[in-house]
């Protein structure tokens, strides 16, 4: 696996990064790669994992923003419990 022939992780969707990360892990688990190839795979895997985490953090932030927006737009009940 040549790192130079792979797309920039910043351009990958979550699904693309996740799928490639699965392939990288599988190749590492199979063994048989040279030390240099294994190091390149490991580094690529770390980069892909970080990209997936970026996507997940962004999704979490969007959900929190949407929840806050929904909460703030709900009508207040005056006199509740009084």
Automatic annotation (TrEMBL):
Its EC number is 3.1.11.6. GO terms for biological process: DNA catabolic process. It is found in: Cytoplasm. The keyword Lipoprotein does not apply. Keywords: Cytoplasm, Exonuclease, Hydrolase, Nuclease. GO terms for molecular function: exodeoxyribonuclease VII activity. Bidirectionally degrades single-stranded DNA into large acid-insoluble oligonucleotides, which are then degraded further into small acid-soluble oligonucleotides. Belongs to the XseB family. This is Exodeoxyribonuclease 7 small subunit. It comes from Leucobacter luti. The lineage of its organism: Bacteria, Bacillati, Actinomycetota, Actinomycetes, Micrococcales.
